[in-house]
Each structure stands twice: as C-alpha cells, then as structure tokens.
Amino acid sequence: ISNFASVGRLDILKDLLGQLYITTEVYAEIQDGLAEGYDFDIGIESHMYPLASDGWLHLTSLEGEEELRIFSHMPAALHCGEASCLAVAVRRGMAFLTDDARARSVARELQVLVSGTLGILVRAVTEEHLSLEVADSVLNQMIKAGYHSPYGTLAGLLTG
Prior knowledge:
- This protein is mainly α.
- Helix content is 49%, strand content 9%.
- The chain has helices spanning 2-6, 10-17, 24-35, 64-72, 80-92, 101-109, 117-126, 132-144, and strands at 20-23, 48-49, 57-60, 96-97, 114-115.
- The strands form two sheets. Strands 1-3-2 form a three-stranded parallel beta sheet. Strands 4-5 form a two-stranded parallel sheet.
- Strand 4, helix 6 (101-109) and strand 5 (114-115) form a beta-alpha-beta unit.
- The chain is globular and about 45 Å long.
- The chain starts with a helix and ends in a 16-residue tail after the last helix.
- The model has no long low-confidence stretch (mean pLDDT 94).
C-alpha cells in the first residue's frame, strides 16, 4: 500500500483488487509512520472502512483463537503488521501483499498466495488496467520515492 500511496496511486489497488484488508496492527504502523513524518499515508483514513463508510481498505482485527495462535507462532523477525496480516491470510484463505523478503518467504512456507508491488503492476498491465508505459512510469515514480525495485521496467516480467 505504501508504495502506491507514495506516488498518489492507491487507485490502482482499488481498481485492480476492489477491496483490501489491513489489520489494526498495520494501521498502527501507518499511524507511527505519520508521526515520524512519512506523510505519503496522509488521508488514508478516507479510503478505510469503517472510518469512511464507502472505504475499500477494510480494517480488520485478529479474530478467534486460531488467528491469535498463528500470529503468536510467526517468526520474531516479522513486524507485527506483517505477522498479523499473514495470520489473517492463513486463517481466512486470503492472498498476502508485501515486498518484504522475509514475509514473502514465510507466506510461501505457509502456502499463502503472495504478491507485491511488481506483481500488482504486472497484473494491472496484463488485465489492461494500465498500459506498460503508464505502469513503468508509476514504477519509476515509486523508485524515486524510495522503493528498492530490482527492475526499472516491467517489460521483462510480462509473459507473451
């Protein structure tokens, strides 16, 4: 979410995925970032349900003993936000979006479908939500904003 927020393109996530779920732990991390001066998430509440009645980012909490148990068994190296989202994804059968290598590895071990910024941009191109040129422009804006991408263009990631 942060990479898309940093370039003012949360619309890509909304248009492509319809709705996303974030845990209260992720929301707390966003609030901590805002307090530290990371202003790209300013106004995110206007997209967040139930804070905004028409929000498409659904705020959720860990629910039930199984999600709490899964969360408590996550590797200590994961941030609380990543661990909580993974616990929700495992229990509720959801996909998990992250660019963090450790979190992606844990997701694969738990057999959770995982994607990240590049995967979302590639999907936006393949499903014709964005042209390759626009997606590459968004990627380059993200890189300028601090995203450490292994690719400068999406062309090599697209399958014919």
